[in-house]
Amino acid sequence: MNNQVNGIVIVDNNSQNKEVIKSICNDVDVCVFIEIGFNSGIAYALKVGINHAVNHFNCKWILLLDDDTILLEGAIDKAFKIFENLPSLLKNRIGLIALTSVNGDCKIQRVVYGIFSGSIVKSDVAIKACCRDNFFLDQADFDFYAKIRELGYLTLLIKCKLIDHKLGTLLWIPVISNIAGRPLPYELPWRFYYLVRNSSILLKEGKMDFRFYITQIFGWGIKILFKDGFRKFIKPLSLGILHALLNREGFLAPIIFE
């Protein structure tokens, strides 16, 4: 990846293999390793990384990647060739370009609910919009995209495979996988809590439409219901909605949902 960018900032959230990561980073001239020392959540880690990149690399654009995303060879050049071929008036309005892991015709289109990983963001936009660290994990990326649009910029997506990225753990879910005939993406109940709580907050704030809200909560919740049972489904669901109504954000210990 270092042959596609001018600098690399790795922010470590107290990972078990941080010494290995640090050693690899030290072998790359343009790599900076920042150790937070605890699991601060993705939003806070990104805020730290973006601030460092802007202040030390004087960059115009920032590419966000998580630890399970691989940037394909030539992806950045391809993305910016597509960008440069756009009309000047449109280019000035673009705040973020999302790279995807799906095959397509490489046409550019608007995206509302995008993820952090694979997003290329104008640095002056990123510093203003990133990040809602009280969300801790899930849906902080949706809030990020919404804030960019609130600043008057477009959030766009290039529809072709420029990264490798897999979302969630694939598991065989009773009944549902039998119907689908394959393992399905699955997240633990404590992750479902963050999804419910933070989505409910975004719904209240008008940053998420009701149809999308219901679809994703049903899609993730039904897997927990069939795999883990009713209690492990209803607790994060009800607690997530309650905390959203009370405007309670921040970290909640996973042990609560065991």
Automatic annotation (TrEMBL):
GO terms for molecular function: transferase activity. Residues 8-85 form the Glycosyltransferase 2-like domain. Signal peptide: none annotated. Pfam families: Glycos_transf_2. Keywords: Transferase. InterPro entries: Glyco_trans_2-like (IPR001173), Nucleotide-diphossugar_trans (IPR029044). SUPFAM superfamilies: Nucleotide-diphospho-sugar transferases (SSF53448). The keyword Chloroplast does not apply. This is Glycosyltransferase. It comes from Ignisphaera aggregans. The lineage of its organism: Archaea, Thermoproteota, Thermoprotei, Desulfurococcales, Desulfurococcaceae.
